[in-house]
Amino acid sequence: MQTRRETLKHSAVVAGLLATTGLFPQYALAYSKAAFEAKNVPDVVKALGGQIPVESKDVIVGGPDIAENGAVVPLTASTTLAGVKHILILVEKNPAALVAQFNVTDAVEANFSTRAKMGQSSDVYAVAIMNDGRALFSKKEVKVTLGGCGG
Fold this sequence. Notes:
Elements: H1 4-20, H2 33-37, H3 41-47, E1 53-55, E2 59-62, E3 66-67, E4 73-79, E5 84-91, E6 98-103, E7 111-116, E8 122-130, E9 135-144
Parallel strand pairs: 1-9, 3-9
Antiparallel strand pairs: 2-4, 4-7, 5-6, 5-8, 8-9
Protein name: Thiosulfate oxidation carrier protein
InterPro entries: SoxY, SoxY_sf, Sulphur_oxidation_SoxY, TAT_signal
Domain Ig-like SoxY: 47-149
């Protein structure tokens, strides 16, 4: 049988877990409302503390040349640079440009993949925000034949 003190302790733990796992995403550590509401690449980078993005061959973005179904487009982002703080995947013509943000340390190999929803053909960006604030990117055009938003 649990005591009142143990019940309160367990309730506090459950409330903490719920607050950080999706029920209240605005309170989660990795959530940046300004970044997810930004409409273009420079605004997303600025919201996450980066400088003006500069194109670099050290950042690699991957994805299909033609995506048959825009509802599930496989995208990748990677870099071998040291001192990376964030890796971002952005779709320029999506209502919210930021698709994914990965927080990175030097102990992690910066090589990520995800699936994104794309309503139309667009440029896809991989951006590496460095610890010193520099933002390096590469881009790739992905053509969508069947839009992911019912088109």
